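Co-fold these.
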Amino acid sequence: MSKLDATDIQGIVLRGYNLPFARYLFLEIADAQRGREFIGKLLYRITTGEHWDEGKPEWTLNIAFTHKGLVNLNLPDASLLSFPVEFLQGMKARGEILSDTGENAPEKWDSIWREGRVDIWLAVNSKAKTTLDTLGAELQRVVDETGGAKVVGVQDAGSFWIDGAWSSKEHFGYTDGFGNPDYLGVERDTQPGQGKLLADGGWAPLATGELLLGYADEAGELPVAPIPHLLASNGTFMVYRKLHQNVATFRRYLEEKGKLYAGGKEKLASKFLGRWRDGTPVELSPDAPNAEIVKDKLRNVNFTFGNDSDGTRCPIGAHLRRTNPRDAFGFNGRLVNRRRITRRGLPYGPYVPEDQPVEDSGEHGIIFMALNASLFRQFEFVQQQWVGYGNDARLGNDKDLLLGNHEARDKHMIQGTEDPMNPPFVCGGLPKFVELRGGNYFFLPSMTALRMIAAGTVDPR
Amino acid sequence: MSNINHKTYAMNAITPMKSWKTWIVRAFFLILGAVKPLQKDLVQLSFIHFARWVIIKRSKFPHADSQQPEEKLKYDYLLFFSNFNGTWNQYIDAFSAVLSTGLNLIWHWSEKFPGSVPVTPFKQYIARCQFDTDYYYTAYPYATTNDVKAAHRVQDALDAFEKESARKTAEEFARSYRKFVLAVQCDLGQTGKAPVGT
Amino acid sequence: MANQSGDVYGLTILSPILQDLTAETSHNCAIRMKLASMPGDESSPFAKVSSTHMARLVVMDDVVYVGMPSCEEHLKSQYLVFETNFDGELDEYLTRMAREIPADVDALWQHCWGYPGTKDVAAFIAYMKKCQITTTFYFADVNNHTVQETLTALQTQAAVAEFIERNQGKAAAELQIAFAHFLEKLRKAPPPVPGRPEKGGPPRIETNMKWATRNAANTKQVTPNE
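Predicted complex below.
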């Protein structure tokens, strides 16, 4: 295939910036014309996928729109109606499908999400905290100048500074950031295990159309995309979910169950996720963490579950195995290739070391952001069928321990062996470790599409 | 939604076939029936409880009364009935991804069948040929076929364990029990409500 | 045997529906109205004919026109399609239908050509067989267990999962006693009801979900029919 025009694609789609600070601004559009003017003034600042010859920039800026945002910018009806149904409806309306009920229901969300006020997402990522304020002020100036939009909410997020270095840990203590897929045409440090499985056991990048609109996907078709072609091409869809983490509950649960589990607390934690908290994949090293493997790019994502069909190394219901089953369903992993997502999130709230007290009510959580060409076929499918349910993994109604919206009988089964340090173990009485506090579906347009939107020249033919 | 009863979906589809092609489909089924490996994929996918294909020759539509008008048809018809778990999209996506050869062999002979790959025209064809169920009953609405198979494994393991552990000392019992747990540890998923929506 | 897979029988019946242009409600509408009012759960007539794994009833209005260059054609009658998967022999099943659920059967099939009613079981069976189409290929994933065996197994599965969880970490002697009680209780449990949407297993004790506020007072007995 031809090379991707990286300068037409927003940078955050093609790479995780790995900048430690982030600020997400949420805006409501005042009126279409001034809104377009506002976007027009931002255009030259938006970070694209261009190569960084001089190393990372001080800051990056990206922009995305909810469907309501596009409506408020007066895009033509024919274009607006051609977006996929789930994007049109927005995440709040899809609650039943995503199990965003009970504690995760919109009634519990932050007000900007509950009231559906967000039109635009503006994301600043930076090397230094002060840059967030400088750029924030700059953006506010443009807002005031044009009167095109109003900032209705701000969310800060960022990596933890632990032991003198930036860490990729999140609040439950797990090291995050592994496993984003490889796509054809996207330049990246490829690691074996990130792409799709081949018949000979090797790995290949996924079709570009699993991430970007306008390209063939894994089924050899163009994903459902809005018209005209120029509006859709090189764009993608983003899920944004603010996931509050009940850190106190998690630590207490792990502590209590860790005393009962023969392998100990850390091993138990590894059986929840599928990685030890230092990042070692359980499938490669089920008995102890292994810093060598974590550092080894050729190994830290390179494993399959074919030889572990009864989950005695990595439990069948472990988070990592649920969200990317690899070859666990047979057919050489073909049933999984159209269900992958690219994650770009960051934790929010202050890091609290394990030995310090923490409250569930504290501001601790993760801003979960996922990119995919089809919300319905990718994110929503994984969330509904593999995280909130377990039939494909032959686990009936059992849900993911970490993310599941748990009810009275919910449990996570850890399969074991005769080895007394690796016994079968039921994690019962699962509390809700994670609660949804809001979010929505966004469209991340290409630079071309952005210029068309700003100029008001979207033409659906 | 009358096509669905909790975890199971009742799909009905009818496709026309030129009369001279019907014997080819019958022949293929004879082979499918006889050759176990082809059925292996269906069992591996494990989301169909029961499925059937029924060929109706154009002269063989049931005629139950002399007053009933006789059917005068050009085509033979292939009826398909499936009882499957999961959503409509998930079902067809999976078939298109891994069973396309088998599906093509069966439906190639139906008029205007577009092939099972690529998947979108295939879905459009099915939508055209599918007709909705008016009434659907299942004896185990909260169980998928995976749940049923797991349940039978657990029942068998329990029966065996009960026999084997009778009249044992506490220590011997505990050892047998540990083996029993290992035998059923992959089959303990709870049953319950189906995920909502398609 | 094309209609059979292991111990399960796949019956396909197409009964031509009467056409009466003078009737206030057409026969196929009447059938649809009856079907809409029939419960699909444990009160279903097919729960009574308890050897039924799965059954459906469909009013097939017409054949499908797939578009040019195919020819368009139409059926002269509509058909009541009855697709069922059950344990045992065909004659036995049809006899059960006639004997155990005659009112429902009559209410549906009285709208069909040549229907003799359920009073004369032999005539009923002959009529149904006349409308039967041989299944060309029948696939049954699980074909060696009856409905009752399956329902019992599901009940056992839930009970075993709960036992394993509740007795985790117990000492050998205590475990053995608990298991004996468990078996006794399981054997005495009422046979599960076909068609009922229930999770099975014995009553659970529910604990307050958020551990941060958990206390002994917040326990609630949960019944199985949830």
